[in-house]
Amino acid sequence: MKLILLGPPGAGKGTQAKTLVDEYGIPQISTGDILRAAVKEGTEMGLKAKAFMDAGGLVPDEVVIGIVRDRLQHDDCAKGFILDGFPRTVPQADALQSTLSGLQKELDLVISLAVDGEALVERLAGRRACGSCGRGYHVSYEPPKKSDVCDVCGAALVQRADDQEETIRKRLAVYDEQTAPLIAYYRGCGLLRELDGMKPIDEVRTRISDLLKAV
Ligand code: AMP
After folding, report:
1. What is the pTM of this model?
2. Contact 3/85 with Cβ under 8 angstroms?
């Protein structure tokens, strides 16, 4: 299964991708996660990317295209992959197309998750994660038992630097301007399926499974 999950920040792409990883035995390729790891490690790429990420903008195409081109050649992508947060621009989508044709592979499906703007701000602003084990929480929808402490490992919860309201609004504007055109791009290729990402997580999950079974 070679799948793209498309949608604005906070639409639930990462949440859904994680459940599909186990079911299909294919990796989730999140450019956001890869970039955050590079920032944490202080690599040259991480240092370059950090300023764009903190400002809520996009990291330059050539950087993320290079990351994905390398990642798709790993053995664990032989059976497929779930792209989460890539592509985010038309040049990235074009580069993905040519990388995949070079590998003699084709995308099976692009699933777009739609969520309205104010709901996204609320989802993202309330998002927290354990700084140690990475378990995710939401201050209103899935709070930890003890405020700001992970239920699983007891470490402190942290908020992503780019989940501050002002940066969230910038990220959503960037999505509308640069990423939303990919909906028409993939519709034109006949690969797009659209789902209502406002529905509960389990319901979205079931709808995704139904779409994947039909491939
Ligand atoms: P995410 O975790 O997907 O919300 O990504 C966090 C941040 O990483 C984004 O706001 C961008 O700054 C950067 N980023 C992630 N994926 C991409 C991409 N495909 N193209 C450009 N920047 C990206």
Report:
1. 0.94
2. no
